[in-house]
Amino acid sequence: MAPMKAGAATAPAELYDDDDVVASDDELQSMSDDQLEGLGDAFEGDDLGDDLVGGDDGDEDAGEDEDTGDEDARARLKEAARRQQPAGPGPKSAAAAAGGSKLSGLVSDTAFMLQAETSDAALLQIEADELLSETRVGYSKNSGVEAVLARLKDALMSMPEHQVPMSIAKGFVEALGGNPKDSLTVKPPAAVTLVGSYAARAVARPDTTVDVAVQLPTDFLAPKAHLNHRYHVQRAVYLLAVARHLRDVSYSLFGEQRIEALHGDPARPALVLQPPKAEGFSLRLLPVAAPSAFALPRLAPDRNGVRSHCKAAAAGGGKSPAAAAAGPMMADDQQQQQLLPTPHYNAGILEDMLLPVHAARLKAVLSASPRLLDGLLLLKVWARQHGLMATRPGREAAQAAGPGGASTSPAATGFGASAGGCLDGCVLAMLVLLLSERNKMAASMTVLQVFRAALQLLADGPAWTKGLVLARQEADGAMKNTPTPPPLQTFKAHFPVVFVDFTGWLNVASHMTRGSLAHAQLLARRTLDILNAPADPDEAFAAALLTTSSPAAAFDYHWRVTLPPGVAWPVVKAAAAGQQQQAEAGEDGGQEAAAAGAEAGVGGVVCRDRALWREQEAQIELIVRQALSDRAKVVRVLRRPLATGANVRDLARGLVPLAAAADPSPKPTDDNGDDDDEGPADDDATTDYAHQELQAAARSVWVGAVLDPLAASRLVDVGPAADDGPAAARFRRFWGEKAELRRWQDGKITETAVWEVAPHERHLIPDLILQHVVRRHLPPGSAVASAAGCLDWALACQAVPPGADLAASRAAEAAVDKLAKQLRGLDGLALKVVGVQPLSAVARGTAPLPPQPHPLAGGSAAAAADAAGGVSGGIPRCLDPLEVLVTLENSGRWPDDPTAFRKMKAALGLQLAGALASSYSHHVVASEESLDVLLDGFAFRLVLYSGRDEAMLTKAASTAAAVAAAAAATATVANGGVASGGPTLGSGLLSPEESPLLLSWHHGLVSLVGGANSAFAPAARLAGRWVAAHMMSNHIGPQAVELVTAAAFAGAGSPGAPPPGSRLTGASGGGRCCCSMCLYTVVLLYCREVLRIGISVGFLGVMETIPRMVLEALEVGVAEIGGVRGPAGLG
Length: 1131
Description:
Strand order of the largest sheet: 3-4-7-6-5
InterPro entries: NOL6/Upt22 (IPR005554), Nrap_D1 (IPR035082), Nrap_D2 (IPR035367), Nrap_D3 (IPR035368), Nrap_D4 (IPR035369), Nrap_D5 (IPR035370)
Keywords: Nucleus, RNA-binding
Helix content: 40-55%
Number of helices: 44
GO biological process, one term: rRNA processing
Domain Nrap protein: 210-365, 374-547, 614-778, 805-962, 1014-1065
GO cellular component, one term: CURI complex
Oligomer: single chain
C-alpha cells in the first residue's frame, strides 16, 4: 500500500507514545463499554503498519475495515481534544494574559510546551502528523529507485576512458570564452555519491528528486581551472559525455534525459533522468569537483575568478610613469588591485566542492533526531506554499509543457519556479542545524515546536543583519586541516544576505537578496502569529501550511519592468565607461581596451560574477527599494526561471536559456531518444540561438512590493539636509529633475522629491515613482507596466470627468452635514430631532457609482456642467435617494398598538416636512414611511426613529408570525395534509430594511472597517460593480456585498494575512491593489465551504442561501477575474 496509508495507520500509536494527545479521565469514564472496546480494537496490535505493507494485497475487505476503524478512532480523539479545557499557561489562559504575549528568547516556549495538552495544540499536532504522512516518501532498500541507483553507479564507474571534443557543447563553451576546438580526456568519475534531500531522508513531496554527485576525476581539472569559467566548461563537457554513455548503456533503463540549471545558474547545468522503474523519482546528476580540487583561499568572497570582471577605470596600456619605473612586479600588483571580486562565482564553485561534505553532515545530524527531520519537512512545505522555495515541475508537467514551458504558471500554481532566489533546501537544513547547535532543540519538543523555533530564527531580523554563522567543524579527509576561513565582515561586504556553513568558507545564502529575505521574514512572523493563538485550529493550520500563495495576492503593488531588446545593462554600461577612459589615455590604450572587449565576447557580458539576467534582477530590485524607501516593507523581484525541459543537445547552442526564451520546437529523435548529436550544430542554428539568448536578456522583470499603508500615498519624499553635501549630491543624482530644495516651518532646508497628483490618483504615486526611476536609471527604451490602476475605469462613469465621484461624495457629505444642522435647529416640533446619521453607501464610500449633483434638485448650474463634463446625457434623469436616519427625542406618550404607532410617526413626519419647507424652502415629499428632501443637488430620504421602534417591530413580527402559523395550519388541513409554501410577499414578516437600528449598526460597522483599512471602500465598490455586471444584484444585495468584502479583510478570503490596503482617496496610504482585493472577495463568494452553508449575513439577522444559478455565475466570474494574474497578468 502507499506510504501515506501506512503512515496514517501508525499515527495513533505515535500520538500516544509522545503524549501529544491524551484524553482526560472523565472523557474515558464517560465512554460506554462498546465505545471502549471499539477504541481498543482500533489500536490493538503494534504490527498494523507491517500488515498493511506486507500483507495480502487481495484482501481488500480487511484493509477497508482497518482503515475505517483507524479513521473512527482518530475522529473520536479529535472530538475529545476539542472538548478539553485549556490547562496551564496557554495563549488563552489567565497566566498568559497577565504575563503578556511576548516571549523572550528564541525558544522561550515554556507556555507553548505546556499548551501541548490543550485542545488547540492537540488538533494542530494531529493535522501536522497527517500532513507529514502525506509528505514523506519511502526509503526501502528493495525499492525500484534503489535498484536504479545501483545500476546507475555501475554504469558510471564502467565508463571507458576516451577523448571527447569540446565541440559537443560548442555554444556553451563559446559563451564562457572557451575554445570549442579543444578536446578532453574523459575517465570514470572518482566517486558517485548521494547528496541532497534523499541522502538525508528529507525528501518532501511532490518534489521527488534524487541528487547524485558525480565527482570529476582527479586529473581532469587543472590547478587553475577555477579561473575564467574553465571549470564550468569542463564540467559541462563531462556532463554531456556522461549523458551519451548512459544513453548507450540503456536508454530504456535511465529514461528521458533533460538539462536544467542548478539553482538558476545557466553556467551550471545538471542532467535530469526520468527512469521508468524509479517509482516516480527523478535522478539529477551533478558533476562536482573534489573538496581538495582548488585551494580554498582562492575562492574566498574577496578574490577574483573572472579576469574580465574588473573596474571600469582599470589600467590598460597607459601605465603611470611611477608604475613603469617601479618595475613589472609593481605593475602586476596594480593590475591585480583593479580586478573586482567575484563572490557569487566563487560561491558556485565552492557549493559544488562541498556538496558531499554537507550531505554527510546533514545525514549524521538528522538521522539522530527524527523530530528535526520532521521539522525540516514542515519547513519545506511551508516555504513552497508561500512562494519562498522554487517548485520543480513534475514529470508529466515537464513533458506536456515542453522545453520552454516547463516552468509552471505562477498564477495557476502559486509562484512555481519563479520563487527561486529565496529559500532552498540547503538554507532550511542549515537553519535546523544552527538551532541544534545552539541547543535550542530538545528531544521532548514536538514537530510543531521545532517548526516554530525555526520560524522564529528566520524572523529574527537583528540576527540576520549581524550574519548567521555555524560553528566551524573540520570534516575528515580532504577538508581536514584547511586554512583559516575569512572573517564574517568579508562575507557581509560582498553578499546582501550572509549564512556561513560549518566549513567557514561557503555562504549558503549567496543566492538570496534583501528583498527575498524580507519577504520570508514577513511571512514567518505572520505564520507565528497564526499559530501562537489560533482562533480556529483547522483554519490556522490551513493558512500556515495548506494554502498556496500566489503573486497576485502576496504583494500590494505589482510592476513589470521591460528592458529593450539586445541590451546588456548593467554590464555594458560600466565596460563602455572604462573603455572610454582608456581610449582617452592614448592610441595604445584604446586599442588594448577594444581587444579586451572583443576577447570577452558574449562570455564577458552574459556571465561575469553571475549571469547577466541575475545582475539585472539584482540591480532593478536595488533601484526600486531605494526609490520606495520607507514606503515599502518588502520589495522582491521574482527570478525569471530558466528552462527545465531543455534537451541535452541545447548545450551545443549556448547556455541554459530562460524558460520564456527556450526553443519550443521539438528536436528530431530516433527510437532510442537519440538527438543525432554526433557533431556540432550548424552555424545557422547557433546564430539563431545566440539571438534568442540576447532576446532572453531583455525579457520582462516582475517586481512585487508590500507597502506601508500610512506612507504609500505620501506626496513628498524628504531627503537629507541641504548642508549635508555628499548625501544631498547622492539624492540629486538619484532623483534628477525631481529633486528640489524646500524650507519647512521649523526652518530646516532639505532635499525633497514632490509628486503632484490629483486627490483621486494618490494611489498611483508608487507607479509614478517607478516610472521616473526606470526612465532615469535604466537603458533608453525601458518601460514599466503597473497594476494598481488597472480597474480604475470600473469606478468611473464615462459621462463624467475623472475624479468626479470623489467630488460628488464630498459634496454629498457636506449636504448631509448642512441638513443635520437644519434639522436640529427646527422649532415648533412635537418631538425635537436629537440625532442625524446617514445610512447610504455613499456616506460609507462603498457606492459603486456615487450620484452626481443634479441641477433640478437644488444643485448649481456650474456643478451640473462639471458633472456633465461637456458630454450629452451626463446628467442622470433619475435621482437615487440617500437614506438618512433621523432620531427623535424620547417620549412616554407613544401608542402601544403597532399600527397606531406607525400612524403617529407618519404624522410627525408631516409636521417635520412642513417645518423644513417653511423654514428653509426645501422641496419635501412626505409619505407614511419616510420624507424625501431635495438639497444641494441630492435627494435625501429621511427615516424617523424613536426609542419605541424596536419594541413595536418585535411585537408586530410576533403577531405576524402567529397569524402566518395559523394560516399555514389551516392550509395544511385544506390541502389534505400537504403544507403550503413559506411566507409570501406582504405577509407582514419583517425584512432587514424595516429595522432602522440594524441599518444604523451596519453603517457603523462598515464605516469602522473602512476607516481602519483604506482599501476597503474601493474594494467594496469593485465587488459591487462585479456583482452588477454579472446581473446578480437581485440575488446579492449591497449590504451583503459590503459584509462579504469586510469578511475578506478580516481574513476569510486569505486566512492569516493582514488587512490589505488599496487605492487611496484621502491622506492615508495604501497597499494591496483593488484588483487583488476584489479577487479576494469573489473567491470568498466562490469558496465551496461558504456555498455549502450559505452566506451568513449575521449582522442583519438574515441567512440567505445563494441560488444555484448565481453560484454558476460566480464560478464563471472567478475564472474571469482570475485572469488578473501575477507576472503573466501584467502582460
